Amino acid sequence: xxxxxxxxxxxxxxxxxxxxxxxxxxxxxxxxxxxxxxxxxxxxxxxxxxxxxxxxxxxxxxxxxxxxxxxxxxxxxxxxxxxxxxxxxxxxxxxxxxxxxxxxxxxxxxxxxxxxxxxxxxxxxxxxxxxxxxxxxxxxxxxxxxxxxxxxxxxxxxxxxxxxxxxxxxxxxxxxxxxxxxxxxxxxxxxxxxxxxxxxxxxxxxxxxxxxxxxxxxxxxxxxxxxxxxxxxxxxxxxxxxxxxxxxxxxxxxxxxxxxxxxxxxxxxxxxxxxxxxxxxxxxxxxxxxxxxxxxxxxxx
Amino acid sequence: xxxxxxxxxxxxxxxxxxxxxxxxxxxxxxxxxxxxxxxxxxxxxxxxxxxxxxxxxxxxxxxxxxxxxxxxxxxxxxxxxxxxxxxxxxxxxxxxxxxxxxxxxxxxxxxxxxxxxxxxxxxxxxxxxxxxxxxxxxxxxxxxxxxxxxxxxxxxxxxxxxxxxxxxxxxxxxxxxxxxxxxxxxxxxxxxxxxxxxxxxxxxxxxxxxxxxxxxxxxxxxxxxxxxxxxxxxxxxxxxxxxxxxxxxxxxxxxxxxxxxxxxxxxxxxxxxxxxxxxxxxxxxxxxxxxxxxxxxxxxxxxxxxxxxxxxxxxxxxxxxxxxxxxxxxxxxxxxxxxxxxxxxxxxxxxxxxxxxxxxxxxxxxxxxxxxxxxxxxxxxxxxxxxxxxxxxxxxxxxxxxxxxxxxxxxxxxxxxxxxxxxxxxxxxxxxxxx
Amino acid sequence: xxxxxxxxxxxxxxxxxxxxxxxxxxxxxxxxxxxxxxxxxxxxxxxxxxxxxxxxxxxxxxxxxxxxxxxxxxxxxxxxxxxxxxxxxxxxxxxxxxxxxxxxxxxxxxxxxxxxxxxxxxxxxxxxxxxxxxxxxxxxxxxxxxxxxxxxxxxxxxxxxxxxxxxxxxxxxxxxx
Lengths: 301, 435, 177
Description:
The complex is a heterotrimer.
Chain A: H1 12-28, E1 43-48, H2 54-65, E2 69-74, H3 86-95, E3 100-105, H4 110-117, E4 121-127, H5 133-147, E5 154-158, H6 165-176, E6 180-184, E7 198-201, H7 204-208, E8 213-216, H8 232-239, H9 243-246, E9 254-256, H10 269-272, H11 279-297
Parallel strand pairs in A: 1-2, 1-3, 3-4, 5-6, 5-8, 6-7, 8-9
Chain B: E1 4-14, E2 19-28, E3 31-37, E4 52-55, E5 60-63, E6 65-70, H1 83-92, E7 95-100, H2 111-124, E8 128-133, H3 147-153, E9 157-159, H4 168-178, E10 185-187, E11 200-201, H5 204-209, E12 213-214, H6 216-233, E13 237-239, H7 245-256, E14 261-265, H8 267-271, H9 293-304, E15 310-311, H10 320-323, H11 340-349, H12 355-370, E16 385-395, E17 414-424, E18 427-430
Parallel strand pairs in B: 1-4, 1-5, 6-7, 7-8, 8-9, 9-10, 10-13, 11-12, 13-14, 14-15
Antiparallel strand pairs in B: 1-2, 2-3, 5-16, 16-17, 17-18
Helix pairs in contact in B: 2-3, 4-6, 6-7, 7-9
Chain C: E1 4-8, H1 10-27, E2 34-39, H2 42-58, E3 63-67, E4 98-106, H3 110-120, E5 127-135, E6 147-151, E7 159-163, E8 172-176
Parallel strand pairs in C: 2-3, 2-4, 4-5, 5-6
Antiparallel strand pairs in C: 1-8, 7-8
Helix pairs in contact in C: 1-2
């Protein structure tokens, strides 16, 4: 495997291998010296064409813990604003001799496009509304840590699924592992995912019944006023997660959110800060998973 | 170039005159002077030594094709295609008359641009070019362009192709106004507000690829609107590049009710589906988008039963660098001149169309819609002829295209049936020599 | 065809473990501050056997750990596939401990180099000693074992296979040519 462009492209075995490796990396992260020399001498460029704090920071720290040399390519100062094509930008960066390109871009399929055209390993850190594979991997890792496995779990994914690459990657991953996926949200924000073993609920209370896992998605404010839903107030009333609704799920249900959260819009503060929330653990696990991905991708002679 | 050319023993097909049989065609000074069929128990024999003789035994001899929908990109986008390269590519594809859409820079929305195109064609064109003028100034959909003056200068139809006329009122006026000129209004049927941001067919695949979809409703809604406006105004409506099952159904109903509507589709809409964009293949990005197998079947049925009158290429060449981009950013279009006939011949092999019907859809009816003297093998007409070997196989290699546009989703396909000789403007091109 | 020659059988291996256990005790003048760390995977089982044997002799429990060296190898990016990262579990602070590293076969010495680096990242041991079941020669680094089960000169084309009961096999060591 040269690249990680999406969960769609991964087999169950490959996913399992990443998750197992991540578990060893999680041990490394518990040590005093959290850095390993595994990828010493390798160069990584973080190419973020969209603003990102969490994912970029997580990747950067993962890269540093693996002893790579890290190059951050920030868009506002780059030649992209001078009208250079993405292809030329990538080719220029490749000429520095980089081994990994971690990229985020607003256009779906960009990592496929780049992966086809470079020798370096490409890791998709989010492309348009397509996929965000490392997020789904860390989500799976976090669920397995709490629940032992994914098989047969009732997992509710709530919110703007149409525009969420996190949701898409999670759907592909969870369906490969036999989870019961429930998509909950307004009809305008639920795409046709019928090929992936999903059940759709427009009624949140009904969808949350007996859920083992509740994954909340960030509502992007810019969707408001585009006809997807009338107001954030109406949205929270119908599809926001509060304590009353959380009680409809199983007692030991866990609550996840890829961040950044809109408290009071898709999730209430008491839920976000409750014992059932594993939102901060997701962040820690993100490091381990990203280290595992880079470690595994570097193995090619 | 000899004064006279004799095409011997070819299977001549021209349903406009009821010809479908083996015979000879004699050409003098670029005009057809005699057509003799073996069934008439005669052959052309006189003074054969002065003739350049083409042995067409086992080959089909057809009228040069008339492409009602293409983009030659000149003026303004010469890096994508020029009249010189585009017409050469057309001739290679067996097309001898090309209608070029007005979305050039400047837009062909006034007679100066029309005249420029025709002058350029006269100087550098390998085949005939019939410009299509813009319906509205700058294709902005706001004010009617000077249609009558452009018509006088040589425009044969009007269209805002690529930028559909969103205002129903302006579309109504255009259809009304066009009646004075008796020219068709060619409509790119797309409700832009429904397809906002869309880059491929909307459906399960677009959801899976994370690409924004263009729903079939975006086309169907506009087809319905334009049919209704055509009925209201009596204007001649020609629907461009039909891609959906719904469009076919709406057009069929309209025709049954006697509304003056004609329609075209393109080879890609009856050959491939949205699956071609898998892997984010920008060479399969086209507008309207490639649809589903169900749409493909409906379009084939529409071709078979005559609902769809014409097969056009929608030849839309782009520069390699433009297709080497993010899928969202890459421009839509397929370089179609050099594969259209071969792809359409598949309909003949599949038994959907007879060779005669194919000739009607690729030459005769399009010429009739446009009101031009082309697309037929008539005595006295220019000798625009394509000779086709339906058994010859070739591999699609865009590098070998004469068009500047190498953007094809058919790269690497092996196609059966190709134009082996094109005769146009008195010149004979034998494509077998270059192989 | 691969020819396999048996170098050691179950009985031989038992005797070797017993001897090395005695040597460790002798050299360290007892078992104080001692920690036995096996290198994943073969070394881990041998480390446990050594600890058990020492317990039989001295009647003390010795800390046993496992060490994974995948992240410290020097051939990352050369191999087609990355080695599986296994657990590193050392149930004590190794700082100021005397560590006996255990591996099944000593060959180029590169694994031992990696193991030493991996250990150093976990703490600052007082001393590192090395015990191996087989020393087959061809060292590429200046590393030698403190305790050797058996010296077996080999050629580069040959390979040594150590089979252990803990892996579901019969205890034996094979030379394959």
